[in-house]
Amino acid sequence: MLAFYAITNLHLLNIVNVKKFYFPNEDADLYIAVSDRLSPTLINAIIDLKLFNRIEYLPASEKGKIKLFNQTHYLRLIIRFFEVIVSNYKSSENLKEKIGKIHYSHLFINDFGTSQIFMMNYLNKYYHSFRISIIEEGAGVLYSNKDKIFFLSIQDRIFFTLFQLLTLNLVKKDVYIRRTNAIYVYKPQLYCSDAHLAPEMIPEINHSNNLVKKLLENEVQSLDISAYLERRYYYFASSEVMRDSYTTTTLHINTLLSVIPENQLIIKDHPRFTNTDQASSAYDQYLPNTYVDQRNYLLESIFSQINLDNKVLITRNSACVLHPKYMFGKEPYVLFTYKLYSDNITNMDKFASDLKISYNNKEKILVPENIEEMKNMLQIIHQSIIKKAN
To answer: Looking at residue 91, what is its pLDDT?
Structure first.
């Protein structure tokens, strides 16, 4: 019996892909972490597939709800710790109700976050030798080291130990790590982590992958995608943009708008900040001509349904710009802005170069070194797209 634990729309899609391709005839249950980032349309479509014996909702960790920006480092750690302990300890009764005493032989997750550890602890009470596998929640996992996948920083190790003690569970994290032997990704040949997991390929989503393709078609039918059809430039905010107070990001957007018309730009906010006060007013200065998309849905459903050949995807480090090529074999223009920020992000050069190597038209991957170069690149792209359109 298999158990899948899903946390986002994309993770749900990838779970269905893995289940259908690798375990079509095995009994399996799907557990979904409740979140306002999830698409009800997608979940209902997955229920209709009858691919899983049961689909149950579980409360996700509430560790992000307390604002800690003005606290000291150690106080922040203590508050975060007790917040997670309380929220997850309360969910133990929910796990008993939803899971019971089922013996699962294999658990599929995205990483070793708090909610996932809590589920491992519960399953471990009834079956001490279940295996664990990682399923890609975004292509960025290709470049995640073992510390990030398994949460092995000193702070995370202290947190885990205290968590286990206070929840009366003495299983060491290393026990769960040793049980984890595989990771399912779209591009296993690019997997370069030191986590030493065996990479397994998630099938590309094309006409031969009909079941998953229909899920995406169904998701798009519930959306208004006219802006994505009519506009050519998509700016994807990364989760780190909040810490930059939008200063550098605003400069990049203004540079972009100095080259292209406002009615050709979409700003897609990161799902983590959708429906927050900070996000809702962050891009007001660009309204009404620029389309600011803060909806909750599976973005990849749009990528799957429209022609991206003359679309331009712009981001600092959002993994979503990898998905058109890695998931669907499509080749939009991609412009990375990570070199224009003062702080470095690990592995971004490889992130961009791997995508470039995978492209047939390698000139469509651009990494400017400065603002002036970014502007020149955008002017060349814009002129090329206009020429093709005419």
So the answer is: 62
**60 residue type, one letter:** A
> Contact, 12 vs 6, CB < 8 A?
yes
Q: How far is CA 349 from CA 216, 338, 372, in A?
A: 31, 9, 20
Q: Which of the pair, 373 or 73, is modelled with greater confidence?
A: 373
Beta strands in 93-208 (DSSP E): 106-109, 131-135, 180-185, 198-201
- Report d(CA 58, CA 33) in Å as an integer: 5
Q: Strand, coil or helix: what is 114?
A: helix
* Residues 150/177, Cβ–Cβ less than 8 Å: yes
pLDDT of 70 = 40
Q: Tens of pLDDT along 312-371?
A: 999 998 999 999 999 999 999 999 999 988 777 778 899 999 999 999 999 999 999 999
Q: Is the pLDDT of residue 218 over 90?
A: yes
Question: What is the distance between the alpha carbons of residues 181 and 172, in angstroms, rounded to a whole number?
Answer: 17
Q: Please provide residue 328's backbone torsions phi and psi, each rounded to the nearest 5 degrees.
A: -125, -5
**Tokens, residue 259:** 């080259």
Cα(348)–Cα(143) distance, integer angstroms: 9
DSSP letter string, 74-95? HHHHHHHHHHHHHHHHHTHHHH
- Where do the domains of the chain lie, and which CATH numbers do they carry? 2-201 (3.40.50), 226-389 (3.40.50.2000)
Separation between Cα atoms, residue 54 and residue 51, nearest integer Å: 9
* pLDDT at residue 320, rounded to an integer: 94
What is the helix, strand, coil percentage profile of the chain, to 5?
Answer: 50, 15, 35
